[in-house]
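User: Predict the complex.
Assistant: Input components as received:
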Amino acid sequence: MEDIKLAFLGTGSAIPTKKHNHVAILASFADENLLFDCGEGTQRQFRYAEISATKITKIFITHWHGDHILGLPGLFQTLAMSNYSRTLHIYGPRGTRRFIQLIQELIFDFHINLEVHEISSGTVLETRDYKVEAAEMSHGTPTLAYSLILKDKIRLNKAKIKKLKLPNSPILKELQQGKDITVNGKKIKAKSVVYVEKGKKVTFVLDTSYNERAVELAKDSDILVTECSFSKEDADKAREYRHLTSEDAAKIAKLSKSKKLLLTHLSFRYEHNPHLIEKEAKRIFKNTKVVNDLDALVI
Ligand SMILES: [Zn+2]
Ligand SMILES: [Zn+2]
Protein backbone atom coordinates (compact mmCIF):
# COMPACT_ATOMS: atom_id res chain seq x y z
CA MET A 1 0.00 0.00 0.00
CA GLU A 2 1.36 3.37 -0.91
CA ASP A 3 2.17 5.94 1.74
CA ILE A 4 0.20 9.05 2.52
CA LYS A 5 2.49 11.92 3.41
CA LEU A 6 1.01 14.62 5.58
CA ALA A 7 2.64 18.04 5.69
CA PHE A 8 1.31 20.41 8.32
CA LEU A 9 2.00 23.69 6.60
CA GLY A 10 0.13 25.78 9.14
CA THR A 11 -1.16 24.82 12.57
CA GLY A 12 -2.35 28.09 14.08
CA SER A 13 -5.80 29.35 14.92
CA ALA A 14 -7.79 32.53 14.19
CA ILE A 15 -4.82 34.76 15.04
CA PRO A 16 -1.41 33.61 13.78
CA THR A 17 1.65 33.70 16.04
CA LYS A 18 5.37 33.86 15.43
CA LYS A 19 5.52 30.08 15.33
CA HIS A 20 2.11 29.17 14.01
CA ASN A 21 0.77 30.14 10.63
CA HIS A 22 -2.89 29.76 9.67
CA VAL A 23 -4.22 26.31 8.83
CA ALA A 24 -3.17 24.28 5.79
CA ILE A 25 -2.47 20.57 5.54
CA LEU A 26 -1.16 18.81 2.46
CA ALA A 27 -1.89 15.12 1.94
CA SER A 28 0.26 13.54 -0.78
CA PHE A 29 0.03 10.05 -2.28
CA ALA A 30 0.57 8.56 -5.73
CA ASP A 31 0.08 11.49 -8.14
CA GLU A 32 -2.23 13.42 -5.86
CA ASN A 33 -1.49 16.39 -3.63
CA LEU A 34 -4.62 17.37 -1.76
CA LEU A 35 -4.56 20.60 0.17
CA PHE A 36 -6.95 20.86 3.10
CA ASP A 37 -7.64 24.53 3.82
CA CYS A 38 -5.40 27.37 2.79
CA GLY A 39 -4.88 30.01 5.46
CA GLU A 40 -3.07 33.26 4.78
CA GLY A 41 0.59 32.75 3.96
CA THR A 42 0.20 29.11 2.91
CA GLN A 43 2.18 29.59 -0.29
CA ARG A 44 5.14 30.74 1.78
CA GLN A 45 4.77 27.74 4.07
CA PHE A 46 5.13 25.58 0.94
CA ARG A 47 8.50 27.25 0.41
CA TYR A 48 9.59 26.56 3.98
CA ALA A 49 8.49 22.94 3.60
CA GLU A 50 10.39 22.77 0.31
CA ILE A 51 7.36 21.51 -1.56
CA SER A 52 6.29 23.06 -4.82
CA ALA A 53 2.76 24.48 -4.64
CA THR A 54 2.36 23.72 -8.34
CA LYS A 55 2.00 20.07 -7.33
CA ILE A 56 -1.40 20.71 -5.75
CA THR A 57 -4.08 18.74 -7.59
CA LYS A 58 -7.15 19.48 -5.46
CA ILE A 59 -8.11 21.83 -2.64
CA PHE A 60 -10.65 20.97 0.03
CA ILE A 61 -12.07 23.88 1.99
CA THR A 62 -13.67 23.13 5.36
CA HIS A 63 -15.36 26.53 5.67
CA TRP A 64 -14.97 30.12 4.62
CA HIS A 65 -13.64 31.73 7.79
CA GLY A 66 -10.61 33.89 7.03
CA ASP A 67 -8.07 31.80 8.90
CA HIS A 68 -8.82 28.85 6.59
CA ILE A 69 -9.03 30.53 3.18
CA LEU A 70 -7.20 33.85 2.99
CA GLY A 71 -4.21 32.14 1.39
CA LEU A 72 -6.21 31.30 -1.72
CA PRO A 73 -5.88 34.59 -3.66
CA GLY A 74 -2.10 34.69 -3.28
CA LEU A 75 -1.75 31.01 -4.04
CA PHE A 76 -3.86 31.32 -7.20
CA GLN A 77 -1.84 34.28 -8.35
CA THR A 78 1.46 32.47 -7.81
CA LEU A 79 0.18 29.36 -9.58
CA ALA A 80 -0.88 31.54 -12.51
CA MET A 81 2.59 33.09 -12.63
CA SER A 82 4.14 29.62 -12.44
CA ASN A 83 2.22 28.50 -15.54
CA TYR A 84 0.13 26.02 -13.59
CA SER A 85 -1.39 24.05 -16.43
CA ARG A 86 -3.75 21.53 -14.90
CA THR A 87 -7.35 22.12 -13.85
CA LEU A 88 -7.40 22.86 -10.14
CA HIS A 89 -10.37 21.21 -8.46
CA ILE A 90 -11.79 23.02 -5.46
CA TYR A 91 -14.20 21.31 -3.11
CA GLY A 92 -16.07 23.17 -0.42
CA PRO A 93 -19.39 23.69 1.34
CA ARG A 94 -22.36 25.75 0.22
CA GLY A 95 -21.20 29.22 -0.83
CA THR A 96 -17.86 28.05 -2.26
CA ARG A 97 -18.79 28.91 -5.83
CA ARG A 98 -19.63 32.50 -4.91
CA PHE A 99 -16.46 33.00 -2.85
CA ILE A 100 -14.23 31.59 -5.59
CA GLN A 101 -15.96 33.94 -8.03
CA LEU A 102 -15.10 36.87 -5.73
CA ILE A 103 -11.46 35.81 -5.55
CA GLN A 104 -11.31 35.52 -9.32
CA GLU A 105 -12.63 39.07 -9.61
CA LEU A 106 -10.07 40.25 -7.09
CA ILE A 107 -7.00 38.92 -8.81
CA PHE A 108 -5.49 40.77 -11.68
CA ASP A 109 -4.31 38.53 -14.50
CA PHE A 110 -5.92 35.32 -13.44
CA HIS A 111 -5.00 32.47 -15.72
CA ILE A 112 -5.60 29.13 -14.11
CA ASN A 113 -8.43 26.74 -14.75
CA LEU A 114 -10.57 26.12 -11.73
CA GLU A 115 -13.36 23.64 -11.32
CA VAL A 116 -15.51 24.25 -8.27
CA HIS A 117 -17.41 21.43 -6.58
CA GLU A 118 -19.95 22.69 -4.08
CA ILE A 119 -20.59 19.69 -1.90
CA SER A 120 -22.34 18.48 1.22
CA SER A 121 -22.08 15.25 3.18
CA GLY A 122 -21.32 11.82 1.68
CA THR A 123 -18.74 10.57 -0.80
CA VAL A 124 -17.63 13.71 -2.61
CA LEU A 125 -14.89 12.23 -4.76
CA GLU A 126 -14.16 8.65 -5.74
CA THR A 127 -11.59 7.06 -8.01
CA ARG A 128 -10.50 3.44 -8.38
CA ASP A 129 -7.85 3.86 -5.67
CA TYR A 130 -9.22 6.36 -3.18
CA LYS A 131 -12.18 8.39 -2.05
CA VAL A 132 -12.94 11.47 -0.01
CA GLU A 133 -15.93 11.56 2.29
CA ALA A 134 -17.42 14.63 3.92
CA ALA A 135 -19.70 15.31 6.86
CA GLU A 136 -21.40 18.51 7.94
CA MET A 137 -20.09 20.06 11.14
CA SER A 138 -21.52 22.63 13.58
CA HIS A 139 -19.66 25.90 13.39
CA GLY A 140 -22.31 28.53 12.67
CA THR A 141 -21.45 28.64 8.96
CA PRO A 142 -21.52 25.82 6.37
CA THR A 143 -18.61 23.65 7.45
CA LEU A 144 -17.39 20.22 6.35
CA ALA A 145 -14.99 17.68 7.81
CA TYR A 146 -13.24 15.29 5.44
CA SER A 147 -11.90 11.75 5.40
CA LEU A 148 -9.33 10.65 2.84
CA ILE A 149 -9.55 6.91 2.31
CA LEU A 150 -7.11 4.83 0.29
CA LYS A 151 -9.08 1.72 -0.63
CA ASP A 152 -8.18 -1.85 0.28
CA LYS A 153 -6.26 -3.59 -2.49
CA ILE A 154 -6.57 -7.22 -3.53
CA ARG A 155 -3.09 -8.61 -4.13
CA LEU A 156 -1.96 -11.92 -5.59
CA ASN A 157 0.10 -14.15 -3.34
CA LYS A 158 3.11 -14.53 -5.61
CA ALA A 159 4.52 -17.56 -3.81
CA LYS A 160 1.26 -19.45 -4.23
CA ILE A 161 0.98 -18.45 -7.89
CA LYS A 162 4.49 -19.77 -8.45
CA LYS A 163 3.77 -22.99 -6.62
CA LEU A 164 0.69 -23.59 -8.76
CA LYS A 165 2.82 -22.82 -11.84
CA LEU A 166 0.21 -20.39 -13.13
CA PRO A 167 1.34 -18.55 -16.26
CA ASN A 168 1.49 -14.78 -16.32
CA SER A 169 -1.72 -14.38 -18.30
CA PRO A 170 -5.16 -12.71 -18.00
CA ILE A 171 -6.25 -15.49 -15.64
CA LEU A 172 -4.23 -13.80 -12.92
CA LYS A 173 -6.36 -10.71 -13.32
CA GLU A 174 -9.49 -12.84 -13.03
CA LEU A 175 -8.24 -14.34 -9.80
CA GLN A 176 -7.46 -10.88 -8.52
CA GLN A 177 -11.01 -9.85 -9.31
CA GLY A 178 -12.26 -12.70 -7.15
CA LYS A 179 -13.20 -15.11 -9.94
CA ASP A 180 -12.45 -18.82 -9.48
CA ILE A 181 -10.77 -20.35 -12.53
CA THR A 182 -10.02 -23.75 -14.00
CA VAL A 183 -6.58 -24.49 -15.46
CA ASN A 184 -5.83 -27.85 -17.04
CA GLY A 185 -8.94 -29.28 -15.45
CA LYS A 186 -7.87 -28.09 -12.02
CA LYS A 187 -10.13 -25.64 -10.19
CA ILE A 188 -8.40 -22.79 -8.40
CA LYS A 189 -10.32 -20.68 -5.92
CA ALA A 190 -9.52 -16.99 -6.02
CA LYS A 191 -9.69 -16.86 -2.23
CA SER A 192 -6.79 -19.28 -1.96
CA VAL A 193 -4.31 -17.16 -3.93
CA VAL A 194 -5.14 -13.57 -3.02
CA TYR A 195 -4.90 -11.45 0.10
CA VAL A 196 -6.25 -8.06 1.07
CA GLU A 197 -3.87 -5.21 1.61
CA LYS A 198 -5.60 -2.91 4.06
CA GLY A 199 -6.22 0.67 2.94
CA LYS A 200 -5.56 3.81 4.95
CA LYS A 201 -7.76 6.50 6.39
CA VAL A 202 -6.99 10.04 7.51
CA THR A 203 -9.71 12.31 8.84
CA PHE A 204 -9.62 16.08 9.18
CA VAL A 205 -12.09 17.61 11.62
CA LEU A 206 -11.33 21.29 11.67
CA ASP A 207 -13.53 24.02 13.12
CA THR A 208 -16.64 22.67 14.79
CA SER A 209 -18.28 22.13 18.12
CA TYR A 210 -18.50 18.55 19.32
CA ASN A 211 -20.94 16.43 17.31
CA GLU A 212 -21.66 12.78 16.59
CA ARG A 213 -21.18 13.19 12.85
CA ALA A 214 -17.49 13.82 13.44
CA VAL A 215 -17.25 10.53 15.34
CA GLU A 216 -19.04 8.71 12.56
CA LEU A 217 -16.88 10.22 9.81
CA ALA A 218 -13.66 9.47 11.69
CA LYS A 219 -14.56 5.82 12.35
CA ASP A 220 -11.40 3.64 12.37
CA SER A 221 -9.08 6.37 11.10
CA ASP A 222 -5.37 5.64 11.13
CA ILE A 223 -4.83 9.31 11.76
CA LEU A 224 -7.41 11.75 13.08
CA VAL A 225 -6.48 15.41 12.82
CA THR A 226 -8.75 17.72 14.77
CA GLU A 227 -8.81 21.34 15.69
CA CYS A 228 -8.40 21.94 19.39
CA SER A 229 -8.93 25.61 20.02
CA PHE A 230 -9.43 25.44 23.77
CA SER A 231 -8.43 23.79 27.00
CA LYS A 232 -11.17 21.96 28.88
CA GLU A 233 -10.97 24.84 31.39
CA ASP A 234 -12.27 27.14 28.66
CA ALA A 235 -15.14 24.89 27.61
CA ASP A 236 -17.57 27.82 27.86
CA LYS A 237 -15.55 29.74 25.26
CA ALA A 238 -15.39 26.64 23.04
CA ARG A 239 -19.16 26.40 23.15
CA GLU A 240 -19.62 30.12 22.52
CA TYR A 241 -17.36 30.12 19.44
CA ARG A 242 -18.29 26.59 18.35
CA HIS A 243 -14.91 24.96 18.68
CA LEU A 244 -13.49 21.81 20.23
CA THR A 245 -11.79 21.53 23.60
CA SER A 246 -9.00 19.06 24.28
CA GLU A 247 -11.55 16.71 25.84
CA ASP A 248 -13.94 17.00 22.89
CA ALA A 249 -11.14 16.12 20.46
CA ALA A 250 -10.01 13.17 22.55
CA LYS A 251 -13.57 11.94 22.86
CA ILE A 252 -13.99 11.97 19.07
CA ALA A 253 -10.75 9.98 18.74
CA LYS A 254 -11.78 7.46 21.37
CA LEU A 255 -15.35 6.91 20.21
CA SER A 256 -14.33 6.67 16.55
CA LYS A 257 -11.65 4.09 17.47
CA SER A 258 -9.05 6.11 15.63
CA LYS A 259 -5.46 5.00 16.08
CA LYS A 260 -3.75 8.35 16.55
CA LEU A 261 -4.94 11.89 17.31
CA LEU A 262 -3.12 14.97 16.08
CA LEU A 263 -4.22 18.32 17.48
CA THR A 264 -3.94 21.53 15.51
CA HIS A 265 -5.52 25.02 15.50
CA LEU A 266 -4.70 25.72 19.18
CA SER A 267 -5.71 29.21 20.26
CA PHE A 268 -2.80 31.66 20.56
CA ARG A 269 -3.44 31.79 24.31
CA TYR A 270 -1.74 28.36 24.61
CA GLU A 271 1.26 29.43 22.54
CA HIS A 272 3.59 28.86 25.48
CA ASN A 273 1.76 25.93 26.96
CA PRO A 274 0.63 23.45 24.29
CA HIS A 275 1.58 20.64 26.68
CA LEU A 276 -1.39 21.53 28.84
CA ILE A 277 -3.72 20.79 25.92
CA GLU A 278 -1.87 17.60 25.03
CA LYS A 279 -1.97 16.38 28.64
CA GLU A 280 -5.70 17.01 28.95
CA ALA A 281 -6.42 15.10 25.74
CA LYS A 282 -4.09 12.25 26.68
CA ARG A 283 -6.10 11.54 29.80
CA ILE A 284 -8.92 10.39 27.52
CA PHE A 285 -6.98 9.28 24.45
CA LYS A 286 -3.37 8.32 25.03
CA ASN A 287 -1.98 8.38 21.50
CA THR A 288 -2.31 12.17 21.10
CA LYS A 289 0.15 14.76 19.88
CA VAL A 290 -0.02 18.50 19.24
CA VAL A 291 1.39 19.30 15.79
CA ASN A 292 3.43 22.33 14.78
CA ASP A 293 4.10 24.16 11.53
CA LEU A 294 6.16 22.07 9.09
CA ASP A 295 5.68 18.82 10.99
CA ALA A 296 5.49 15.97 8.50
CA LEU A 297 4.30 12.44 8.87
CA VAL A 298 4.17 9.34 6.69
CA ILE A 299 1.28 6.93 7.10
ZN1 LIG B 1 -10.34 28.41 12.33
ZN1 LIG C 1 -13.91 28.85 11.76
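The pocket of zinc ion (ligand 1) is lined by residues 13-14, 65, 67-68, 207, 265 (CB under 6 Å).
Let me know if you want any component modeled separately.
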